[in-house]
Specification:
Number of helices of chain A: 22
Shape of chain A: elongated
Order of helices and strands of chain A: HHHHHHHHHHHEHEEHHEHEEHHHHHHH
Oligomer: homodimer
Distance between the termini of chain A: 66 Å
Structural class of chain A: mainly alpha
Helix content of chain A: 55-70%
Radius of gyration of chain A: 30 Å
Largest interface: A-B, 118 and 118 residues
């Protein structure tokens, strides 16, 4: 894999030393993805220069891989003919992605060079909600008739395939464009030439509606190992397909988004080093503010038990351990639940099974930690506690009863909150560690002081 | 998508009411993945019964999708002929996956029914380290000669393709089996029949070595949108290929693993509801124990400032807010860095750029939070502070200087630790919120008490 870095370094050397014919040969050997990585580190002038050196068949493929800033720079500098060449080679789904990111005047210029057919499709796809199957589908797929022979089907693919995003999965539709079957090029190639498509095709095709969530579509790729999945409208008419490469992007983006939300970040679509200081600040500050303000309630709880604490200052020393352990326990559970929800492993209907499991795990974890901590307190903290004038057995009892109880509370809160969030239409990923921590912190202190007051008579 | 659930419910009804011919027709219509979901909820007897009803061409495909418990149950109950049928239809990579999970006596029985060729390949693949490209590759791919015409190549695929995991990407090797090119079925189908493979093939093929990390291979699929990637040995000889469906599994598993590690969990390979209480406890208790013990150091810091605290008890009330905010700030950064490392967006060489960025973001976040918190303290906490006999301006100053300083520390620690972990060969994902929280908790208290002693003269 380090080849691709070496290729980029070499290309940069050739550009800097103005060896353009060598650069052209070098770029011709490189993958469009690597070319685009190389281009995106250049200045505007170098970018345009290097892009113009590209072999024509790589230009569009490279253009698609670039970030929107680079694309915008190029579109603005392109001559009409250059723009036409690139735009003509775009698939509709890529054109939509590009257009969504561009300012209106650039979009206008791009649309001038698309055919009216393509323009209609672009407008069609732009109408679908951002997270829908429709928004990620492509309309360039191979369509076969059910009475084709295998030879006819292959001939059809050979004559029309050049403009299709994938030719490997072909769809069979009736006169009303209703999806009636699916057949792979593999099946076609391995069949006799005179067999009929209808006899070979799969009829029970897994399909999605244009308004289904794109995450569900992507999960189906993970589950079924498909190369493409058809997208239909309410009347089961075939409108487009989603291909596996787009599904991989969705799966990766969704995982990143979940991870960011779980860490109290507003998700960003840009890579870390391409995000500015101010943008990163905007991603981070809302949750920090909210959580800071929430944490002051925890402070209020401590204040309200101030007089009790003054009577037994040694209790203060165990607050961080109790709060951290409660937060970690709740975080473990909530993250497990959130990821399982994303992967489709669990559902709201499992809530009682989940709570019952979490209760038993929490008791096991609580007892283990309490026993270890009791031992530790008796061996290491004994002197400190009794020098404070306290009975070390009672203090240890208070601390470890609290430990056990808060772990149980934390694990139940950690399982119920994400499920409830999903149920009422919120994003469960937000119900992860930072949020759970704030809640269980407060709960653990309430338990702590109540147990202390009861057992120590403060 | 709800169709697949309905299909499974219908199949269960038919099984329970012993309508076996209807069940057979129903299963014939279902996807092997859904059949396996249906089978895994059955008792052992029902499982064997239902599996025997399956059309023969679906049996192996369904078997592959089942979990290892179900597979073991079936293998143990199969007659020799049944086992032979299933084993013969397995691809080598699937056979390896199954064998890795089975007890020795079951493996023995399976291997008795594989050809000596397959057995040799299985043993070969089992030798590769668990996380290597070699361990997830398949050896069943299409190999072409460079002097084939397109027609000859297509004829070759048609005659040999049935046993190949994918026929869509074909590889061209020389007499020593060295990989010299790659050609897709799309290119073949769209070319003239008399063109020569050598003139059409891509020669600059992105490839991996058998010992490369499987995560790097999977990331290449995300980056380049390939359907398959070839795996070679040190001498560039082609040994196998990795297909996109296996890459999706690796990407999803790695994301889940990262998420679990970030939440202080020992990763598990099983879905949540299929993991037992004791197993879940084992996943969670090691980190909880370690973090609990570490948190006691934070307690020690509080104890050692006990006398100072006794002189200004109101300071205690701000401890949870300071600790939580520091933990959240550090967690945000570490999680961002960990995910960016996983996605290959950043690298150790970026460390100074990253620290410089984090420093500036931290100052922005710190100032914002300090200003808001200062206002809040002046408006809401003023009475409480002065009733404690303290100067509210000084207290607010101590709290908010600490807030600002700890956020800077937290964000620097949160960026440096994952990068350092990666550098020295540890898993960066472990350096996430819970671990960072424990460290920055201690640091924030040290800052707090030192600032307090200096400004308040405690």
């Amino acid at each position: 894999m380090d080849n691709s870095i070496q290729d980029q370094v070499l290309a940069l050397d050739l550009l800097k030393s103005k060896q353009f014919s060598k650069l052209k040969a070098q770029l011709a050997e490189m993958n469009p993805v690597d070319i685009s990585d190389f281009l995106m580190d250049l200045s505007s002038e170098e970018l345009l220069l290097a892009f113009r050196i590209l072999p024509k068949d790589q230009a569009a493929a490279t253009f698609v891989e670039m970030d929107s800033e680079g694309q915008e720079t190029l579109i603005k500098s392109f001559s009409d003919n250059e723009l036409k060449d690139v735009v003509n080679d775009l698939f509709v789904d890529d054109a939509v992605d590009i257009i969504e990111e561009m300012p209106a005047n650039v979009v206008k210029r791009v649309l001038r060079f698309t055919s009216s057919d393509t323009r209609r499709w672009i407008n069609e796809i732009l109408k679908y909600p951002e997270d829908s199957a429709g928004s990620i589908m492509t309309v360039e797929y191979v369509r076969l008739k059910k009475n084709f022979t295998v030879d006819e089907a292959i001939a059809h693919i050979r004559s029309t395939g050049i403009d299709k995003e994938t030719i490997y999965t072909c769809y069979v539709t009736d006169l009303n464009n209703k999806l009636i079957g699916m057949i792979s090029v593999r099946t076609l190639l391995l069949a006799r030439g005179d067999e009929i498509v209808e006899d070979l095709m799969e009829t029970n095709v897994i399909r999605f509606n244009t308004h289904d969530d794109k995450e569900d579509v992507a999960n189906a790729f993970d589950k079924y190992d498909f190369m493409a999945i058809p997208v239909v409208d309410e009347e089961e008419r075939l409108l487009g397909i989603v291909t596996f490469d787009d599904a991989i992007d969705v799966l990766q983006d969704e995982a990143t988004e979940d991870i960011e939300k779980m860490a109290a970040l507003i998700p960003s679509e840009k890579p870390y080093l391409r995000t500015g200081i101010y943008e990163t600040w905007k991603q981070r500050i809302p949750w920090l503010l909210l959580l800071m303000v929430s944490a002051t309630f925890t402070g209020k709880i401590i204040s309200s038990f101030e007089s009790a604490l003054a009577g037994c200052v040694v209790l203060t020393a165990f607050i961080p351990m109790l709060m951290d352990t409660a937060g970690n326990s709740g975080g473990q559970t909530s993250v497990t639940i959130i990821r399982s929800l994303s992967l489709g492993d669990i559902d709201m209907k499992d809530i009682f099974r989940i709570m019952w499991k979490e209760l038993r795990v929490a008791i096991l974890c609580g007892l283990t930690l309490a026993v270890v901590n009791f031992g530790k307190m008796m061996i290491f903290d004994r002197a400190a506690i009794s020098s404070d004038g306290q009975n070390e057995w009672y203090i240890a009892l208070v601390v470890n009863i609290t430990l056990c109880v808060t772990i149980i509370i934390a694990k139940l809160v950690g399982s119920v909150l994400p499920l409830t969030a999903k149920k009422i239409g919120f994003d469960p990923a937000v119900m992860a560690s930072p949020f759970i921590t704030t809640i269980v912190d407060a709960l653990s202190l309430l338990v702590y002081f109540n147990v202390a007051q009861r057992l120590l008579g403060l």
